[in-house]
Amino acid sequence: MKIISTAFPEVLIIEPAVFGDTRGFFFESFNQKNFAQATGLDVNFVQDNHSRSAKGVLRGLHYQVVQPQGKLVRVVRGAVFDVAVDIRKSSATFGRWTGVELTEDNYRQLWVPPGFAHGFYVLSESADFLYKTTDYYAPHFERCLAWNDPDLAIEWPIGGALPVVSSKDMSAPAFADAEVFP
């Protein structure tokens, strides 16, 4: 497994070793011992999630203010532009974002630690998105940030089109008004 740094030392791109031949491919998508050794992180995943979204769908930017979730995310079909936003007020990178393309062909995974909002935009006709979380989903603690907040200035690869967003994401507050971490 190869670990690639991002704009944040806590957010990591993980490239697994993929073994392929004319029959197809094989890779270990998660191994607790190898993950801990490669990243230095001792995390315990408690929930696996799978979402399927059509082209042009934007999900996010989501986080939980209580029971914050670390997320290990990947795409098993299609392609997305995945984003993490630092929402820790005490951080030197508060309000900054990083993005990476995750595809079924590059096998990359992104570690999004607690304290970051997360979202993605679907680039392919559809995408199957899998993620492991370090805490359980708690809808009453879930919060959103406006995906198009000018203070965040996320460079979503939408090409001038309006993404398809849920009503919850459509009414998400501006970053300046959002509940964030200390």
Features:
single chain, 182 residues, mainly beta, Jelly Rolls, six-stranded antiparallel sheet, 2 helices, 41% strand
The fold-level CATH name is Jelly Rolls
Q: Tell me, what's the shape?
A: globular
Strand tally is 13
Mean pLDDT, all residues: 97
How much helix, percentage-wise, in residues?
under 10%
CATH top level is: Mainly Beta
Strand order of the largest sheet: 1-2-10-7-12-5
> How many angstroms does the end-to-end distance come to?
33 Å
CA-based gyration radius: 16 Å
Compute the number of helices: 2
Strand content: 35-45%
| Number of self-contained structural domains | 1
Low-confidence stretches: none
Q: By helix and strand content, what is the structural category?
A: mainly beta
- CATH architecture group name: Sandwich
The CATH homologous superfamily name equals Jelly Rolls
What does this structure look like?
With 182 residues, this protein is mainly β. The chain has a single domain, classed as Jelly Rolls (Sandwich), CATH 2.60.120.10. It is 7% helix and 41% strand. It contains two helices and 13 strands, in the order ββββαβββββββββα. Strands 1-2-10-7-12-5 form a six-stranded antiparallel sheet, with no helix packed on it. A hairpin with a 6-residue loop joins strand 1 (2-5) and strand 2 (12-15). The longest helix has 8 residues, at 32-39. The radius of gyration is 16 Å and the shape is globular. It starts with a strand and ends in a 12-residue tail after the last helix.
